[in-house]
Write a structure and sequence with these properties.
Layout lengths: L1 H4 L2 H21 L6 H31 L3 H22 L5 H8 L2 H13 L5 H18 L4 H5 L5 H19 L8 H25 L8 H29 L1 H6 L4 H13 L5 H25 L14
Helix pairs in contact: 2-5, 2-11, 2-13, 3-4, 3-10, 3-11, 4-9, 4-10, 5-7, 5-9, 5-13, 6-9, 7-14, 10-11
């Protein structure tokens, strides 16, 4: 059981479940708490919960943290704050199902960035798999209409979500530069950085009169987001990247729309259209093909067959 709980596939599947719930929570939050208030409060709660457990690790790891503190701040600001600020704002303009399917394009961003920046190799099945994922994301973004996609006439929320996806994909690639520190130190420093980085967004929302502080339902939503997608989800994702690398780990984000679509239909009553189903087929087919291509590429070559008269 202990070995199963430490398996990267399971850790990343649980991460995807929490992130699927994040989109549903973001839709439920409309009218109860505003996007930037959610972003700040989620990281405030995370920091307060982590502090009693992580500060000792941070003090021990400080010699390794200090020279990389600017990098860690950028990682927390981009991956935790900017991504989520755009994510929750996008949910004001599009459905949770659309957002979650579009989120599944992150592996393509990670693959392209890895290839351009680090010449990370990819097999033909992986490339085809990534291409299927891209098709699966384009379908809901165009609401099932090819003409909409060709004219680039996308819903504002869908376009915002695609920008958020690029930001998180680059964050995933940049995780390779994080220092070798305890996971509690890592998640605490990133969460604290995210909290600090969220304050200008909160100040802007307050200054424009659009900030909405949570009522009881909004507070419960913020608490779920802080404990699930923020603390558990981000911690498990970082651990998954450590175990199997960013390219493979990011593929499992493709499970997010599966969990999220089921939650959106059950909790929000959102409709699942035929083009959503087609998109999910492309997404799941992409992850399966890309992972199969990875396994084939890593398989050891068969030993040469000895010719007549030779010994093996």
């Amino acid at each position: 059981m202990k070995r199963l709980l430490a398996h990267p596939y399971l850790l990343l599947a649980v991460t995807s479940f929490f992130w699927g719930g994040n989109a549903v929570a973001g839709r439920l939050a409309i009218g109860h708490v505003s996007p930037m208030v959610i972003t700040s409060l989620r990281w405030l709660v995370a920091v307060l919960i982590l502090a009693p457990f992580a500060l000792r690790d941070v003090r021990r790891d400080w010699p390794a943290i200090r020279p990389r503190l600017p990098l860690l701040f950028v990682l927390g600001a981009a991956g935790f704050t900017v991504f989520n600020a755009i994510f929750y704002a996008a949910l004001l303009h599009t459905t949770a199902i659309n957002v979650m399917i579009e989120q599944a394009s992150m592996p393509l961003v990670v693959f392209l960035a890895g290839f351009v920046l680090f010449r990370t190799p990819a097999s033909l099945p992986q490339i085809v798999g990534f291409s299927l994922t891209l098709v699966g994301v384009a379908v809901p973004a165009a609401h099932g209409h090819l003409a909409t996609l060709l004219a680039l006439d996308l819903n504002r929320g869908d376009a915002m979500m695609m920008a958020a996806v690029v930001i998180y994909g680059l964050y995933t690639i940049a995780l390779r530069y994080k220092p070798a520190i305890h996971w509690r130190s890592m998640i605490f420093v990133l969460s604290a950085s995210a909290l600090v980085a969220s304050l200008p967004f909160l100040a802007y929302e307050t200054a424009t009169g659009t900030a909405q502080w949570p009522d009881l339902e909004g507070a419960l939503i913020v608490l779920y987001i802080a404990l699930g997608p923020s603390l558990a989800g981000q911690t498990l994702y970082i651990r998954g990247v450590e175990m199997i690398g960013p390219n493979r780990a990011n593929l499992f984000i493709n499970l997010t729309p599966i969990f999220g679509a089921a939650l959106a239909m059950a909790v929000l009553g959102e409709d699942l259209f035929p083009y959503h189903i087609a998109a999910l087929v492309f997404v799941l087919g992409g992850i399966a093909l890309a992972e199969k291509g990875r396994l084939s590429a890593e398989a050891p070559a068969a030993p040469p067959v000895p010719e007549d008269g030779e010994t093996a």
